[in-house]
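Title: Comparing notes on inverse folding

I've been comparing how different people in this forum approach sequence design from structure. To keep things fair, I'm posting one structure and asking everyone to reply with a full sequence. Here's the target:
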């Protein structure tokens, strides 16, 4: 059973997801080419190489794929895995202050302490968006009352810092990689179902592949349904 932690009453806006805005938590995967590109540019763009008999551009190493399972308590080996997540649209509640905004209530956060986790959408719908919710790890060890197998006495293994929670709107076709150990909400999509290919390492050990915490009421993300960014009501 996931431990529970108290949460402050905080309302945050969901802002556009960009490589710079998300850099503290992981990386963003998006095509560097305009959608209307149908021919190889000359010269090829920086960072790309020609492939497939010069009919494609390859961009190597677009996102990290990292395993730190050798640092896990069990030391058990992990295998790279690839899964399909069919994420159904969440039900948001109306904002009491704006007819164009809706609110998502955060009730659980999770992390994968020894692996990156990458979500790449398939067949993106123009009416579907993903809400990426992340939090830093508290930089100091938790108090003794919170010490559990999830939160050992380690500066790198604390609970999420809820006061610095962030939320981002991923437009259709944009993928994301959570950095090793990054606290995040389970994937939230709005509008329509989004299917994701999800890549990560796994050992099959409970508590090492995934760790969860439940949070109390009061953590809200405001999503502006009429534009690319959210709006805070603070």
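Reply #1:
Here's my take.
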């Amino acid at each position: 059973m996931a431990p529970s932690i108290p949460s402050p009453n905080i309302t945050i806006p969901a802002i556009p997801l960009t490589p710079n805005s998300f850099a503290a938590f992981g990386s963003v995967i998006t095509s560097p080419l305009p959608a209307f590109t149908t021919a190889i540019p000359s010269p090829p763009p920086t960072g790309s190489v020609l492939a497939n008999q010069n009919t494609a551009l390859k961009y190597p190493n677009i996102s990290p794929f990292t395993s730190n399972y050798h640092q896990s308590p069990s030391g058990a080996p992990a295998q790279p895995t690839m899964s399909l997540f069919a994420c159904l649209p969440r039900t948001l509640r109306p904002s009491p202050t704006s007819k164009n905004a809706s609110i998502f209530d955060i009730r659980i956060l999770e992390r994968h302490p020894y692996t990156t986790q990458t979500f790449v959408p398939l067949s993106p719908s123009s009416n579907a968006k993903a809400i990426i919710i992340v939090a830093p790890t508290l930089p100091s060890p938790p108090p003794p009352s919170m010490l559990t197998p999830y939160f050992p006495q380690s500066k790198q293994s604390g609970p999420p810092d809820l006061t610095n929670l962030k939320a981002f709107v991923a437009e259709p076709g944009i993928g994301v990689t959570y950095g090793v150990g990054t606290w995040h909400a389970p994937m939230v999509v709005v509008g329509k179902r989004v299917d994701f290919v999800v890549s990560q390492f796994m050992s099959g050990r409970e508590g090492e592949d995934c760790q969860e915490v439940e949070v109390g009421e009061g953590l809200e993300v405001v999503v502006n349904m009429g534009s690319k960014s959210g709006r805070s009501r603070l």
